[in-house]
Design a protein that fits this description.
Layout: H1 2-31, H2 33-36, E1 44-45, E2 55-56, E3 58-65, E4 70-74, E5 77-82, E6 85-90, E7 98-102, E8 110-116, E9 119-124, E10 129-133, E11 141-146, E12 152-158, E13 161-166, E14 170-175, E15 183-188, E16 196-200, E17 203-207, E18 213-217, E19 225-230, E20 238-242, E21 245-249, E22 255-259, E23 267-272, E24 280-284, E25 287-291, E26 297-301, E27 309-314, E28 320-326, E29 329-334, E30 337-343, E31 352-355, E32 360-361, E33 363-368, E34 376-380, E35 384-388, E36 396-400, E37 408-409, E38 417-421, E39 424-428, E40 452-457, E41 465-470, E42 480-484, E43 492-493, E44 505-511, E45 514-522, E46 527-530, E47 538-539, E48 547-552, E49 560-564, E50 573-577, E51 586-589, E52 593-596, E53 604-607, E54 612-614, E55 622-623, E56 631-636, E57 644-648, E58 652-655, E59 663-664, E60 670-671, E61 678-680, E62 688-692, E63 695-699, E64 707-709, E65 724-726, E66 734-737, E67 743-747, E68 755-758, E69 768-775, E70 783-789, E71 797-803, E72 811-812, E73 818-819, E74 821-827, E75 830-838, E76 843-846, E77 854-855, E78 864-870, ...
Parallel strand pairs: 31-92, 32-60
Antiparallel strand pairs: 1-3, 2-27, 3-30, 4-5, 5-6, 6-7, 8-9, 9-10, 10-11, 12-13, 13-14, 14-15, 16-17, 17-18, 18-19, 20-21, 21-22, 22-23, 24-25, 25-26, 26-27, 28-29, 29-30, 31-91, 33-34, 34-35, 35-36, 37-38, 38-39, 40-41, 41-42, 42-43, 44-45, 45-46, 46-47, 48-49, 49-50, 50-51, 52-53, 53-54, ...
């Protein structure tokens, strides 16, 4: 309180002096008004005419001389605090701003300004709120005011209310529905010294000086209440909001990025320490613009809050105090001038692969190191295993494989790790730094069926490992169970000893009281028990279909718990059996996994929805706090049990208070596989969108940083879709197909908001969705959508839809009976010709730009069509298929005849085909576990693309040519790359790439350069 009273006294003295100066200025202004009627009181400079400044990716478009204390924007006008006046400038041409009008001197210096409609609201130094009528910008005038008792610093307006922060008197809520009679209706005294405010909906975010960020619920203006806070490192001076984040200009601690999605549990998601003193901040399109005092303007890329980085700056001549932004234009109120600056996003280095996420992933397993719990392993579906050695502070890719199983660690030698994937066992003997396939049994079956390998280490015998093999489909006796006593170097096949009702072993566990007692579960839900280490087995009771996980409670009665169901078998459920013979099972709760507390008997955590916990052995369950969603697994630190980790559909979250609050913990966790489509703007190669597992991400920095968009539900239903597109004729329009409904979602603001267009149902359809969306390349407004119906597994009838008005309404095309449509493309050289590939029902062709379609009777293969690409100039059509005769086929006569390429890029499926434009078109093929291949001779020969892993999963590609640049985006699961080029991902390599989107830029259109090096 002493500090506050001292500051109040000082302010009153200074205020008295300033009031005298302002009064004197007013007298002078009045005496010379006749001389100034035709004089513009500010000077407009052309760029560079006044002073040259150091800059990076920011250019000076114009400037307005004189001291500027605050700035706000509306339409074509900038409203500038110019001493004690509010000056209005026309900035429709930033290079030549034009003076429009100004107020008479106000009774206090302009500290902050906000504009709405016909009024500007000014925070006037020690003279409260001033209301300015700006209906006539050439003659702005004060029409009302409201006096506060302290020192107004800044102001925001929302609806009929103005929110004014006073340095010593908190937040004032003022009703301005009658502008001539402002009336305070609410007040909240913050604990610090409020200096800025931003209002979104019913929430006010206050930069509260030494008390950091305060979050105020103003849904009832007459009774504001604090709903959350975060104490920043230094002095919170300015605040702006976007999405789930508040961006705080924190004085000498730079920019702080605060996640405010749960106000009561706000936390710092990232920061960037600017070189000066951050005084104000504005946010637009993935960038934060910071007024950084004597360090000028700093532009920070914030699409990935955990990895914010500076991408531009401009050293203004004086002290940068306030900022307003529209698009890429920044208006900086500087002590020497108002600077009209323009940010030019950097162009990435040609011929170099770059990567910046997106981060997170579907994390269905989190495993703690048995000795050092600061080391964790996380299995990301579609990508692989990631590791951290600092309690999830930062992750790095360890093993890249599309279907990673739960890591199992040898308790006697924790450097030995085991995992599995489709058709192989994987092993590391250096803590996950490198992996090999040496633990795959020589007798193990291969690709006759897609087997899943699940190794589990024995808890009491060093080097002993059990390995279960199972197939999702296929014979019940196709599976296997193996035992190794030498760490996986050799194996004994125990399968003949199992009951032959089902040998597809999916889960293995050990009795902590008798480690010779082993329990296994199978694909079809059977449970087998061995009491002699696996040499003989008896069949126990069957709880349900498909055993996904088994474990014996280490406490109490040591009952057996099981998870049944799972991703391939419907909703998962948790069961338990309390008798030693496992003759009966009791269903407990719906959950995908369970975790016993390591130190407290009877406490169990269940992964379901936002998570549940029981403290009475599973009799009763309570929801876990903190706002978690879609939890798949929990892990609890035995040395610090208040520390809990959650694997979710979005990434890893960490709690330090026993699950009461949670924070994102996936910095570096690049486990997002963009398997539902990539799309890039036709006019801005830095604007790219990626869809993965029901989530949509956006980058406005060429893939250097990403933010997740809030979109309608697009849950994945098929392994590969093309749900995203940007319209070539109206680049502001983005299309998002709904994979679980006959609907296409539309956005005209880069994915911030969406409208939904509903498509007519095919006859008899009850369940289905959109599989691909393709705008026509040359006919404005025309968009095609392919659909598939769900029902009988392996049978997917489909439909084709047409829109003639940019997706706002649709009609079903009469194609007769067809299969689900997975790909639609048009011939670049003859855009009236189009091709559609279906799942099991052949190919369709259009010769009228997509309005009508006919089956290609020459296509005789019944295989699923995965991708279609057409040569840019010679009309050749390339088609990749999956099934018995899978491969790439080509037609040189418009689909009248087809030939399978003599040389194939891979023996497995090719998810995506793409031609780049140029004098020498390059055909790219993205395969399953075969990386990205390219051909410069129309598929006669193939090479692995340098700089990317040779064994990655590549389900999506996108490219664009803008000016003299061609940009290629690749969605991949990642892998390992050696300095010499590509390598098997289990070979030691200096660079291991995680999942996500990689970008490469090359010259266009006359020359195509292939990537040469990798930039980590």
């Amino acid at each position: 309180m002493n500090k506050r009273f001292l500051l109040i006294g000082l302010c009153m003295a200074v205020g008295l002096l300033l009031t005298m100066i302002v009064a004197a200025q007013a007298q002078i202004a009045a005496s010379t008004s006749s001389k100034m009627e035709n004089t513009v009181p500010v000077v407009n400079f052309s760029p560079g005419a006044s002073f040259a400044q150091e800059a990076l990716n920011v250019v000076l478009d114009g400037q307005i001389g004189g001291t500027a204390t605050a700035v706000a924007l509306q339409g074509q006008y900038a409203y500038i605090g110019d001493g004690s006046r509010l000056t209005i400038q026309d900035i429709s041409n930033p290079a030549a701003p034009v003076f429009v009008g100004q107020t008479d001197p106000l009774p206090g210096a302009v500290k902050g300004v906000a504009v709405a409609g016909n009024y500007a609201y000014v925070a006037a130094f020690i003279n409260g709120l001033r209301v300015i009528d700006i209906a006539n910008p050439a003659a702005p005038s004060e029409v009302g005011f409201f006096m506060t008792t302290g020192n107004p610093q800044n102001v925001a307006v929302a609806g009929n209310y103005v929110y004014l922060v006073d340095l010593f008197n908190g937040l004032h809520i003022i009703d301005v529905s009658v502008p001539t009679a402002p009336n305070e209706v609410g007040f909240f005294d913050t604990p610090g010294e409020p200096q800025d405010v931003a209002v979104v909906g019913s929430t006010a975010y206050v930069a509260d000086g030494s008390s950091g960020l305060r979050i105020i619920d103003v849904s009832v203006p007459t009774a504001p209440v604090e709903s959350g806070s975060f104490d920043t490192t230094d002095e919170a001076r300015g605040v702006a909001t976007a999405g789930n984040y508040a961006y705080v200009a924190d004085g000498f601690s730079g920019l702080r990025l605060i996640n405010v999605s749960v106000p009561a549990a706000a936390f710092e998601a990232g920061f960037y320490d600017t070189p000066g003193q951050a005084l104000d901040v504005a946010v637009a399109d993935g960038y934060a613009y910071v007024a950084d005092s004597f360090s000028g303007l700093r532009v920070i890329a914030v699409s990935n809050p955990a990895a914010a980085f500076e991408t531009g700056f401009y050293d203004t001549p004086g002290e940068a105090r306030s900022i307003a932004v529209t698009g890429l234009q920044a208006y900086v109120a500087d002590s020497d001038a108002l600077l009209l600056l323009r940010f030019v996003p950097p162009v990435l280095t040609p011929n170099v692969w770059t990567h910046g996420g997106p981060y997170g992933g579907v994390i269905d397993n989190v495993v703690l190191h048995p000795v050092t719990p600061t080391i964790l392993y996380a299995a990301a579906w579609g990508s692989g295993i990631f590791a951290t050695d600092n309690s999830a502070g930062e992750w790095y890719p360890s093993l890249i494989t599309p279907i990673p199983e739960r890591p199992s660690i040898d308790p006697f030698n924790p450097q030995w790790l085991y995992s599995g994937s489709a058709n192989r066992c994987l092993r590391s003997r250096d803590g996950g730094a490198t992996w090999d396939e040496g633990c795959t049994p020589a007798s193990a079956p291969t690709w006759q069926y897609p087997f899943r390998f699940r190794p589990v280490t024995h808890p009491a015998i060093a080097g002993r490992v059990f390995l279960g093999l199972s197939v999702p489909d296929g014979p019940a006796t196709a599976g296997h169970l193996y035992r190794s006593s030498d760490g996986g170097d050799s194996w004994l096949d125990l399968t003949p000893n199992l009951p032959q009702v089902d040998t597809n072993v999916t889960a293995i566990t050990f009795d902590p009281l008798n480690t010779a007692r082993i329990i296994v579960g199978t694909r079809d839900g059977y449970v087998y028990v061995s009491t002699n280490g696996g040499d003989a087995w008896t069949q126990a009771a069957r709880p349900d279909t498909h055993i996904e996980r088994l474990a014996v409670n280490p406490f109490g009665a040591h009952e057996v718990w099981a998870v049944t169901g799972g991703t391939d078998w419907g909703a998962p459920h948790l069961w338990r059996s309390t008798d030693a013979a496992l003759t009966q099972w009791e269903q407990v709760i719906q959950a995908s996994s369970f975790t016993f507390h390591p130190t407290i008997s009877g406490t169990i955590w269940a992964a379901s929805g936002g998570g549940y916990a029981s403290i009475d052995g599973g009799q009763n369950w309570d929801p876990v706090g903190g706002g978690l969603t879609d939890v798949l697994d929990f892990a609890i630190d035995p040395q610090n049990p208040d520390t809990v980790y959650a694997g979710t559909m979005r990434g890893v979250y960490k709690s330090s208070d026993n699950g009461q609050t949670w924070a994102e913990a996936f910095t570096g966790l690049s486990g997002v596989l963009p398997n539902l489509g990539l799309a890039v703007s036709p006019i801005n190669p830095d604007e790219v969108y990626a869809a993965a597992n029901g989530r949509v991400f956006r980058s406005l920095t060429g893939g250097q940083a990403w933010d997740e968009l809030t979109t309608p539900q697009i849950a994945e239903a098929r392994p590969h879709m093309r749900l995203l597109a940007v319209d070539p004729a109206m680049p502001t329009r983005i299309y998002l197909g709904d994979s679980h409904a006959f609907a296409v979602h539309l956005s005209d603001d880069k994915g911030q908001s969406w409208l939904t267009a509903v498509l007519p149902l095919p006859p008899g359809a009850t369940d289905g969705g959109i599989w691909c969306v393709t705008p026509h390349p040359t006919i404005p407004g025309r968009v095609l959508a392919g659909a598939g119906l769900y029902g009988t597994p392996g049978q997917y009838p489909g439909a084709l839809y047409l829109s003639q008005n940019y997706g706002e309404s649709w009609s079903r095309i009469n194609t007769g009976s067809i299969s689900g449509v997975a790909a639609v493309v048009f011939d670049p050289a003859s855009p009236q010709i189009g091709y559609a590939g279906t799942e099991g029902g052949g190919m369709l062709k259009s010769t009228d730009g997509g309005t009508s379609w006919q089956p290609l009777t020459t296509w005789t293969s019944g295989d699923n069509v995965l991708a279609v690409a057409v040569h840019p100039t010679n009309h050749k059509v390339f088609v990749s298929t999956m099934s018995a005769g899978q491969g790439i086929f080509v037609s040189a006569d418009g689909g009248q005849s087809w030939n399978r390429l003599a040389e194939q890029p891979t023996t497995g499926p090719v998810w995506e085909l793409l031609f780049t434009q140029g004098a020498l078109p390059v055909l790219y093929a993205g395969g399953m576990e075969s990386g990205l291949s390219f051909s410069t001779d129309e598929g006669s020969s193939w090479s692995i693309t340098p700089g990317l892993p040779a064994m990655a999963n590549v389900p999506s590609l996108a490219s664009v040519v803008v000016g003299d640049q061609a940009v290629l985006y690749v969605g991949t699961s990642g892998g390992a790359v050696t300095p010499e080029g590509n390598a098997n991902r289990w070979t030691a390599a200096p660079v291991v790439l995680g999942s996500g989107v990689y970008r490469q830029v090359h010259a266009a259109p006359n020359r195509v350069y292939l990537p040469l090096t990798i930039r980590s």
